[in-house]
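Researcher: Please translate sequence to structure tokens.
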Amino acid sequence: MASIFQRLTRPFTSSTMQFAPGQSAAASMNVPEGAQKCTIAAGCFWGVEHMYRKDFGKKGLLDARVGYIGGDSKNPSYRAVCSGTSGHAEALQVVFDPQQVSYRTLLEYFYRMHDPTTANRQGPDTGSQYRSGIFYHSDEQKSIAEEVTKQANEKWYKGKIVTEVLPAGEWWDAEKYHQLYLDHNPGGYECPSHFLRTFPPLS
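Model: Translation complete:
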């Protein structure tokens, strides 16, 4: 596992700084008819994307992007988000087929793969950009997010969950080098709190 120093310095090398703020790799994700979006924040987005792609890539996940959400600034850069001054969280946005995987399943996975009890922190990574959050895209998603959060809080985390559940505001794709980061950089930094916990079913 790469050190935290590598995580902080690798994205700011001359080979990666050619990407301007908000100038990401590809066009916006395509959302086919009937597909939905799921947007979550669970700490360092490299590992979050990697885990979701690995476990849902052939089970209904159609596309995924890492990026920034929840702040007020426009076209935030990774450097700005890491400074903690942008208000944005590092996040993952997934496009999924609800006929193959449910929104509830994706959220139950969310509560199993990270620690939702630490405010503005995930493992050794500290700052508001690493906060835990669910950003819903409809009233139905809001209802499901609140229900899953309540159940996970009662049954899994003994009332300690600090995850925020908020409407999805404007989304900004992260720079090109962050997309599929751990696929392109095997052995790159992975937050040690990103692993699947063993819990009994919620329902």
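Researcher: Any highlights?
Model: The beta strands are 36-42, 61-69, 89-96, 121-122, 125-126, 132-136, 164-167, 172-173.
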